[in-house]
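seq as requested:
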Amino acid sequence: METSIDGVLLVNKPQGCTSHDVVDFVRRRFKFKKVGHCGTLDPMATGLLMLVIGKATKVQDLLMAEDKQYQGTLTLGSTTDSQDAQGAVLTTHEVPPLTEQELRATFDSFQGDFYQIPPMVSALKKDGVPLYKLAREGKTVEREPRFVHVFYYKLLDIALPNIRFEIKCSKGFYVRTYCHDIGAKLGCGGHLSQLARTRSGNFLLEKALSWEQLGRYEHAGELVPHILSMAEVSQIRRQ
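struct tokens:
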């Protein structure tokens, strides 16, 4: 029997599963008729995944449009076909003894408004076919540049070849492309080796249900205390 509950569930997605895997698990286990998510996280990424349940699916696009915040690690010295650590290595280069000043100058050049070219290994479609499927066939097609915005970044730790950073960006932003482009500008290449989404609009990772907690529940009633009502969602968005 399907369960009638409406609202938003914040989940801390673990590494190794897709966003769709989380949606499918919640829909099947708790017998919800409608479940969606607000912004895909790659299998490698962890962190805040917002699930919309029941009538909350009607505000899915609105919630997806929120700005996002991430913490990630850029690894310099190699590029991959997916622009992250899960891809096949394409090039390797020696990492020069870059100073913090040089790194900041490069990161500074990727602030504000600019265009990104989405990666081939992505769920974007060309003539109805996902780009990642074309990439598996060794094909490369022209991708339309995306207008994006970086509100701010912070360098959290520099231990070359790794650079830990925090970034707040607009929707549709590819953090792995950001890392790839910064590596290219530094002349040694780079890829995203770790990523966690910590915020979406005013919704915070610290308020999310862990994957372990979610797995301990068997009935929808147990989830209710963790599901934000439509009124609560509206209130949080206005904060």
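The longest strand covers residues 146-159.
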